[in-house]
Amino acid sequence: MDAVSSAASVIAIIQLTGSLVKLCGSYIREVKHARDEILTLQRAITGLQRTLKDLQKNLQSDNGKSLPTSSRLAKDIPNCLSDLQELEVKLDPGMGKNLMRKVGLRALKWPLKRTEVEGVVKNLETHKSSFLLSLQVDQTSLLVGVAQGTDRINQHIDLGKLEGVMEAGFESFSDRDEVECLQGTRTELLQIIMEWATSPSQKSIFWLKGMAGTGKSTISRTVARSLKDTNHLGASFFFRRGEGDRGNARKFFPTLTRQLMLWNSELRPGVQKALDNDPDISSKSLREQFEKLLFQPLLSLDQLGPQNQTAVMVIDALDECEHDQDVRNIIRLLPLLQKAKSVRLRIFLTSRPELPISLGFSEVGDHKYQDLALHEIPEEDWPGEGVIQELVRITVPLFISAATICRYIENLKWEPKLRLRELLKDQAKYVSKMDKIYLPILTRLLDDQESDKSEQQQLLQEFQSIVGVIILLAVPLSINTLSLFLGIEADQISNRLDLFRSVLSIPGDRDQPIRILHLSFRDFLVQSRTEFYVDDLSKHKDIAKSCLRTMQNHLRKDICGLSSPGARRADVDPQGIHQYLPPELQYSCRYWIHHLKQSQAVCPEIDNVRLFLQKHFLHWVEAMSLLGLISEVVGMLDVLYIELPDDNSVLANFLHDAKRFVLKNRQIVDEAPLQIYYAGLVFAPRISIIRTEFKQDLPSWICHFPRITEKWSAELQTLEGHSGIVNSVTFSPNGRLLASGSSDRTVRLWDPAAGVLQQTLEGHALPVSSVAFSPDGRLLASGSDDKTVRLWVPVTGALQRTLEGHLGRVNSVAFSPDGWLLASSSFDKTVRLWDTATGALQQTLEGDALPVSSVVFSPNGRLLASGSSDRTVRLWDTATGALQQTLEGHSRKAYSVNFSPDGRLLTSGSSDRT
User: Fold this and answer.
1) Is a pLDDT exceeding 80 seen at residue 336?
2) Contact criterion met (CB below 8 Å) for 869 and 826
3) Is the pTM of this model over 0.70?
């Protein structure tokens, strides 16, 4: 089918959809019992119609003949036309137009059951998705072009601008000691994975899920090795919680992009373009990084023709990525990569079956991924002696148990055969799998000290004070840092930890962090009732005390010797910060409240906490600012406040005042840390507890202090960042986000609790006049002077769709209570109602003589009120679009309208001062 034929067929379908929309409208007016089903069908038809009109424009454009759409539509258009004709027969069952006019629709019943309507809507959405895909391919074709030619490969790209996490890749130096599957093991599973990776008909994602200890990471490394040997390893990222950027998603997509460019140099021009357009792209939201660094460069390869290449990205331990929302966003974004046709992309992903990941995959749909539960797969039998069979019985399905036992047996300090016999000897007396893994190893350490009971006691004490701390740390610390943090000699820690190499990863470098080899070891210690039991509440309390002691010993005013009050944090040498704020102090500043909360012992430590804050609060805030963590302080103070006993009003008042103090000064202190002692104290209210408590830190060189308020005003904080007038603000339904629309053409999303900017949404060409969240908080609408309304996904910052149709600037936007409709009012004198699911225009409400300033839905969603410059307020029926009433009385423009919660009253505000 050529472009001309395609365009003609599309026009025929558009005409048929128009007839069907009108037919549904007649049924809506006359048939009352099935109104919801009819409206749902009408919305689906209208959405398809709008997509087809966009497709028609493409096909009839100057580039129509050269676009790849035509070949894609050869089957889709006839199938869609057939389905719509079949629907027309059902809605107009063979009576003909003349007979319809004679009999009238009142003589008819709605011919479709609810299940039939659902089936029809599903088919229409399938057709719409197919046409939208064709549109996307065409737009990509037009944007990219084929003129870039051979210059792609030779373009130079500055990888320094593309920040990656080198340690997260396969075969990184930091993972040099990590093992792969032994020869002859896991063969069936590995064969399944490799067949999936190389077969052209498989789903794009393979999710290998399994509980702790089932060997997921070992399998990931083995798969990565096989893929690398066959040149199919496109990229890899091995998450590891607590190890800087390996434990979060901040550099996840830049890391994958760097590796993919090395695998296929054709990607370089697209990535270079993204970096040229936005050198800071690596620090933007996950959605922007994905779109500009990975997705668009991959789509651009389609213009070079099919390359028949297969690239697999290995993503290990996604559950160890901090921030559940980032995990879900990654899962939402990755399936989009299958739209790149020139390269067959596969994603091999492992994780525990934790809730955020399971929810993420449930949203994606099981047609896009294949999953396998590793903990349900029994380990392959090893041929050989009965001892090996017994070991297999003990370890299945926990791979970590096999790895732990192997490390234990191969320790050269003891005779392997003896250790193995002792390990198997008492298995019957152990109840749980964890007991069978860890108790024989730990008990053996005590038995080695059998000749001296005092040595056994000493071992247990040192185990508690060293290993007990290691397993509960928020992030891993090194031997040297632990030594300073706990007040124990580094040699003593090193010697004692040497006994636990089968359960701990202990680097040769004492400045590298010690890690638990598996989290099940921590679970075992805090749950078992043996000599090695770690009382986590008591141990968290001990760690909190160490944090307080470390801060009390080291924190002081101007800790980095900056001297100048205006010294900017960005200008401070990072090495200098590390010198004056060593790792043990950094850890203490960031996690002391975490450990205090986990200990559930704030009350017993209340005096120590109060004394610390009364002396070092400003020093602590200064340190957090130098570390770039000032945004965490408010949340930490909130946690501490909640944990306080009800009868401690002194500390409660201090924390309340401290929070107000930080909120007021967060931005300036984040920029220049020492300003906490200058602008912070100087402009604090006269009766502020912080000002009173730290009056000795007020600048002595100020002779006459400025006039200040007596107490804190109602203003909590000022959110700065917009470069233009802020025209609209709104909270999300759960109160966790604040959206602001500005004349600088952006929408900004803020964390209102901490005052931190979360995302900047860019796309409008002119000022943003209005913003509104949907009732469930999943969508954000913005209206602009550029005559468009944009729908955004707040959690990702992604633009979902742009609603076009207004002929003048958009003044106001509002969601219906059920979130199905979005109303927009405009300078073009109209109000428009949009379907939020499809973006289709449902109604255009006309009647105002001048621009419409404001719109609002009634609480039940049946009425829409609009305030206009023609001095009237109008009430509309949202189902039919009919004007219900015109309220007159204002002598000037009606700027704002709002319903009372029960919907019985409507208020309006006007420039006539009423």
Assistant:
1) yes
2) no
3) no
